[in-house]
Amino acid sequence: MKLRTYIVEDNATIRENLIGALQELAQIEPVGIAETEDDGKAWLAAHSSQWDLAIVDLFLRQGSGLGVLAACRNRLSNQKMVVLSNYATPDVRMRCAQLGVDAVFDKSNEIEALVDYCIAHGAAQAPRPASSSLAS
């Protein structure tokens, strides 16, 4: 089963390379993208059960990834939020943990770890039974 993944990243080159790599290596299915905090929060709220993983950059064209993360604190238990940032300092990692982030990856040297995370999370996803419905 493909991991339905939403990506909040304002750099088009990084975003396209990330999507391509994760599709090839981790079998993700991109379900949407945002370049700003407002767009990310709006999509995730409007499609609350249509994603399994959100990958969020912290520094965006408008707003901050921290706002996107805070808006998703009450997500479903199987939905994962991860940060992919050039600024994965200990302080940033601590703030992300306070917001309930599942993992933080440094863009410069932890892309392979992100791929491994996506593979593991995709494998852990239970098949979605057609007969049951989630209350929203």
UniProtKB/TrEMBL annotation:
What is the protein's name according to its record?
Response regulatory domain-containing protein
| Any one GO BP annotation for this protein | phosphorelay signal transduction system
- Domain Response regulatory, first and last residues per copy: 4-122
Q: What InterPro entries does UniProt report for this protein, alphabetically?
A: CheY-like_superfamily, EvgA-like, Sig_transdc_resp-reg_receiver
Q: PROSITE patterns given for it?
A: RESPONSE_REGULATORY
Q: Does the keyword Phosphoprotein apply?
A: yes
Query: Which residues are modified to 4-aspartylphosphate?
Result: D57
Keyword terms, alphabetized: Phosphoprotein
Keyword Phosphoprotein listed: yes
Superkingdom to which the source organism belongs = Bacteria
